[in-house]
Every structure is written in structure tokens, then in C-alpha cells.
Design goal:
The complex is a heterodimer of chains A (180) and B (165).
Chain A: E1 18-25, E2 33-35, E3 44-51, E4 59-64, E5 73-80, E6 85-91, E7 96-100, E8 109-116, E9 125-134, E10 139-148, E11 157-160, E12 171-177
Antiparallel strand pairs in A: 1-12, 2-11, 3-8, 3-12, 4-7, 4-11, 5-6, 5-10, 8-9, 9-10
Chain B: E1 5-12, E2 20-22, E3 31-38, E4 45-51, E5 59-66, E6 71-79, E7 83-88, E8 96-103, E9 112-120, E10 124-132, E11 141-145, E12 156-162
Antiparallel strand pairs in B: 1-12, 2-11, 3-8, 3-12, 4-7, 4-11, 5-6, 5-10, 8-9, 9-10
Classes of the chains: A mainly beta (180), B mainly beta (165).
């Protein structure tokens, strides 16, 4: 077995290859969501979500291990707005970024984010994400990559947002992918 | 340990076909993933997905496309063709593949969003996010194209379900 879901695919389905770790479904709005006590027994993590924010189509923010040191994070983005292609990058912001949310009622942004080799203590951790939203006349498609400049294994993920909050029915599911 | 990422159904075309349907999809998963590997009878078609036999103008797509020379982003609104997977501008010998994620497909409170990657060998690559403006659970997936062309014999269409804790 190999492979992560958003770029390629091989055979999943063997018991335990791709395991659900934890899921958060919001019954009311929340500014933060957190996954804690993540075991190091997997090779990679995958975060899959739908998310809506009533204030603005903010990116989903990811912090690891409650590490708030700004210089430990950087990202790059390739974006399609439906009319133009944009690119961007950032560093020293204290977060990694994941595909953005929607603001429209009933329409949710989506994202699939792979956190690669998250338990390896010999190298920094990198992530990649694909997602965005379409709202029949507006939308954004986001490719994102990010780095976390720490070699510590990731044991917790804090999901936050620049403003507003994650609305009811936003849903975050964390999976672990095993290696042979 | 329960199976989390589970194959639901696979269709391998024994002869060329204009469309492929997955029906009676259970609502017991959180997300669906459809993996397509195919070629088409000629260029000029665009691959779309309709769900639940809805042929109304309830679909829209925002896409990002690159062909090695240029990149562009396009939007399709109020589209009756379905959620766009990708344009096929290759030839019948060139393969295309796609991985389509139907996120939270079975809830009955939100509109449904599909996100996908689409590649044509030696031609282009793109990614799209599409909306189906309905709160119904998705129970049928209909893969089609807009030019009455056919998916080649040997094409595979595999549907997986992903469960959450």
C-alpha cells in the first residue's frame, strides 16, 4: 500500500491501512477545534473537512503542538478565483494555512490536507492541501503547501481562524495512514 | 479495527460507453472518493458528474488549469451539465485520470461540494471545486461528457467510501 488521497491512489481497504482517528462535527459555532494526543503510530495524517464562516472566506489555520512561534511556519499558495490565477507565500505568521471556508448559507468550503511524516523526529514537517469552495458565481480553488520548522513529532493540531468562527455543521475528520 | 477506506464498487468498461452510473450509494460513509482512469473517443469533450439524476441548472464549478504554457482559472455557473471534472483536449490514445472527493455527501443540511484533481497525459492538469445546490444526500453518481463521446473500453471507475470516527 502506498499513497495519499489527493494526488494519487492505490489500494485502500485493508483493515487498518487508513484509520479514522477522531472527528469533530460542530453543533454550534466554534472559533477553534483541536485534535490532541495524536499517536505516532502512523506514517502520515490526513485532515478532511467542510467548513463555513459567517464573517469572511478565511483560510483554515493550522497550528501544531500548540507552537505559537511565528518563525516556525511558512506557506505557499496557488489559487484560482474563477477569473484569474494568483500565487502567494508567507512566513513568520505563526500558522500554516489550509483551503478556505465559504461564507454563504448552506455552502461549505472543503479541504483535504496531508501532513507528511508527522512523527519523524529527524526532519521538519511539511503539509499540502487542496480544496476551496464554489458558490455559483464566486469561489476559490486553493493549492497550498506549508512547512513547520520543528523536528518534534506532531501530537496535536489546533484549528483556528483569523476572524469569525466555524459555523454549525462544519466537520473536521482526522485520519492516520499506515506504512507497510 | 474497522475498515475506514472501503471500496464500494468498480466499473471496468468492456466496450466503449457514453456514461457510467453508480446508484444506491449507502449513506454510511462520511466522504466518497471516485477514481477515474479512462480515454475518450476524441478531443473536445468535457467530463462532468451529475448526481441523483438531477439535470437542472444546480451545478457550478471553479477550476484551475495549466497546460505547460499557461495557467487559467474559469468558473461555470448555473450549469446543467453537472460538476465539471475536466476538459479532454487530447487524443484517444492519451489517458486521463481524475480523483473526485464528495465531501460530507450524505448529510441533509448542507449543499454538496465536490473537489477533484484531473490529469491528461502529455496535455494538462487541473483542479476544481464544484457545488451541487441541494441538501439531499447523494445516492447516485452519473459520470458523463457533454459531447456525446464515449469512454474507451478498459476504462475504470472505482468508488470508495471513507468513514469517520
Amino acid at each position: 500500500m502506498s499513497i495519499l488521497g489527493i494526488i494519487a491512489s492505490s489500494k485502500f481497504g485493508d483493515v487498518g491501512d487508513f484509520e479514522s482517528i477522531a472527528t469533530v462535527s460542530l453543533s454550534s459555532s466554534a472559533a477553534t477545534v483541536e485534535f490532541t494526543s495524536i499517536l505516532g503510530t502512523y506514517k502520515h495524517l490526513q485532515l478532511r473537512y467542510i467548513a463555513r464562516n459567517a464573517t469572511a472566506a478565511y483560510f483554515v489555520r493550522l497550528q501544531f503542538n500548540s507552537n505559537t512561534t511565528a518563525s516556525n511556519y511558512s506557506y505557499h499558495i496557488l489559487n484560482g478565483t474563477g477569473a484569474a490565477v494568483t500565487v502567494g507565500a508567507g512566513a513568520n505568521e505563526g500558522y500554516n494555512y489550509a483551503p478556505r471556508q465559504s461564507t454563504a448559507t448552506s455552502t461549505f468550503g472543503v479541504g483535504v490536507v496531508d501532513i507528511l511524516d508527522y512523527a519523524d523526529t529527524n526532519k521538519n514537517t511539511t503539509i499540502r492541501g487542496l480544496g476551496g469552495y464554489d458558490n455559483n458565481g464566486s469561489g476559490d480553488l486553493d493549492f497550498l503547501s506549508g512547512a513547520f520548522y520543528q523536528t518534534a513529532a506532531i501530537t496535536s493540531i489546533q484549528i483556528s481562524v483569523a476572524g469569525g468562527s466555524y459555523q454549525q455543521y462544519s466537520h473536521f475528520a482526522l485520519y492516520g495512514i499506515r506504512s507497510a | 479495527m474497522p475498515i475506514t477506506y472501503e471500496p464500494i464498487a468498480t466499473t471496468t468498461l468492456g466496450s466503449a460507453a457514453a456514461d457510467v452510473t453508480f446508484s444506491s450509494i449507502s449513506g454510511s460513509y462520511t466522504d466518497l472518493v471516485l477514481i477515474i482512469d479512462t480515454a475518450m473517443s476524441s478531443s473536445g469533450a468535457t467530463v462532468y458528474i451529475r448526481v441523483n439524476s438531477d439535470s437542472g441548472s444546480n451545478y457550478s464549478t471553479t477550476t484551475l488549469y495549466g497546460n505547460g504554457t499557461s495557467a487559467l482559472s474559469v468558473r461555470l455557473s448555473n450549469n446543467t451539465n453537472g460538476m465539471m471534472v475536466g476538459p479532454y483536449d487530447g487524443f484517444s490514445t492519451e489517458r486521463l485520470n481524475a480523483i473526485c472527493h464528495f465531501m460530507n455527501y450524505s448529510n441533509t443540511t448542507t449543499y454538496k461540494t465536490m473537489m477533484n484533481r484531473f490529469n491528461q497525459s502529455d496535455k494538462s492538469t487541473d483542479a476544481s471545486v464544484s457545488l451541487w445546490r441541494s441538501t439531499s444526500a447523494i445516492t447516485t453518481i452519473f459520470v458523463r461528457n457533454n459531447s456525446s463521446q464515449t469512454f474507451a473500453s478498459g476504462s475504470t471507475f472505482t468508488l470508495y467510501g471513507i468513514k469517520a470516527a
